[in-house]
Amino acid sequence: MRRHCKFHRSHSAIPPSVAIALTLVVCFMTAGCDSAEDQLKLAESHLGDEKHEEAMTAYNRAIKLKPDYAISYYNRGLLYVKLSQNEKAIEDFDKAIELDNKLVEAYRNRGQIHLQLKNHKQAIENFSRLLEFEPENSSAYTERGLAHSAAAQLDKAVADFDKAVELDAKNVAAWQNRGQVHARLGKSEDALKDFSKVLELKPDDAQTYFHRGSEYSKIRQFANAVADFDKVIELNPADSNALRERGWTQFVQRDSEKATDDLNQAIELNDKDAIARDYRGQVLASLGGWDEAIEDYNAAIDLNADFYQALCHRGVAYLGKGELDLAAADFDAVIGRKGDYVDAYISRSRLRRQQAEWDQAMQDANKILEFDPKNADARLSRGMAFNGKGEYDSAIEDFDWVSEQGGQDIAASTRRSKAFANRSFSYYLKKEYLKAIDSAYFGILQKSDNFQAHNYRAMAYIAREQFDKAIRSLNLAIRYNPEFAEAYSNRGYAYGAKNNFDQAIGDLDKAIELQPEFAEAFQRRGLAYSAKGDLEQAAKDLDRAIALKADFAEAFCDRALIFGMRRDMVRAMADLDEAIRLQPGFAKAHLRRGLAYLEQGKFDMAIKSFDEAIRLEKDYAEGFCFRGYAHHGAANFDQAMKDFTEAIKLKPDFARAYFGRNLTYRKLKMKTEAAADLKKAKELDSGSK
Predict the structure, then answer these.
(1) CB 401 within 8 A of CB 392
(2) Stretch 44-69: mean pLDDT, rounded?
(3) Residues 99, 69: contact at Cβ < 8 Å?
């Protein structure tokens, strides 16, 4: 509180206003006032008329007339405050206190100026001195609490606000500011109680509705948050901040349309609001509008060059567009400015995973864990990098840690769901398919719309050749994310495995429509066309897959199959050699090379290739089956019999293995056994059509 000290003659029976007027008349008639008190009254009169220069002249004259008069310095200090000359105001308050150390209002006003100038220590000292004289002053505790809060001494701030409301239960400022400090301390329940108390005392306080709404939003009580923002807008329809925060809350609730409407209005009311631009950018990015999102992020950064969050979000948008160099530049810039900004490290780690830079991705995750060892997002990111490096057990350890973390809010359950889903992928890569299916199931229990969990479960079903179950899981993945290209690709593969080639091609067409450079989708569509006998289109798709992904061993392997079907064995062998060069441990490529040798009647070379395929994949039914054919061709009938039998053991419905063993039985003159195997082969073959 700032106020000028007034002085009246105690012996005068004339009303004060008349006394001042008479004094002024005498002053002018005598060409001046001879006392400091008279000059103070003259200054007060000038202030009433907003004549600041004349008031300053009167204060200066009062000080000249009476240099040791504390009130003159104090009142002149207040005028300096009004004129925004804070340093001069402090000098006058210093002098006033030097002359009269019990002038409590001087401590208050000097403390307020120091608080305004962010001289927090001096502000606290002044309010403390004031409280020595007035220990029951609720407002003084409130002001010292504000100074402690500004100095980030939050516990001390709370203690002062506690005392303020103890002394005066109707001190609105103390309740409101304590609520804000509780919010900063993460004590949402206490903050909400304080804000609600303010609204009991002051029911139409729009600012407090705004603060309470923001706190509700923070703890994901979105309906309450929206209700409070609605109240702010009802009280002040032009409150762009409330529109902005309501828009963000609508977005978090996945109502992009309402979010966009609110954010558009907020920006129309205040086109200098960088945060609103950033929020709208995030909404647009979520809808795949990368270019429009980047425009908003650019505007936010232009409005606030230090807005590192918007810079990070722009990097994410560039990542979504596939402009990886620009994304990396933004993430690097954010980390250069704000070395402990977790989101930038998480986003850069994601970028590095996308570029298969597993060690660098892991470094970013580890950096977060240095200053936040319990950061679940960092553990998730590191786990995915471990998967990329093939260190599946380490990945599972990270995912297990995340899945064991508590919390019932949406964010916590979402992280656990991601952990279970990614652990499912780890088990899939380890070829532990039942564990993969179970882990994905737990991810779905945590969050039923986790489309990636449904997708990973389907991949494990495909590996187990449970194609109907895979298709059901992929139907759910696509329901929850209709733009999920990988799910269409996987469903296309499953349909192809069931010989539903038209449905397979339809799904793979959709995958390519959604992701035009999806090499795996072209490779799978090529296989589907080859199965339909359209070798020309199959070759085009496989050529495209290899053009998109030059190190795509599987596409080389499949193109070799097309060349083989065209009897172009030279090019078939060249593609198989390239597949094996790119991926020496690729059992399927060794199998296909064995088949090429088998086709050419080179049985010994075929057997060597099948040997390698089986070495790489010990339960490879196809490897045993075709090695059986090679041994049969080389007249190694006993070994052929063993291989066909092992293939049937591994895959009881393998018609081709029964047919091969039938041929070997015939060579061994075992007609009964041959007839039984031939019958079984025909049954299985007819059942698969």
Answers:
(1) no
(2) 94
(3) yes
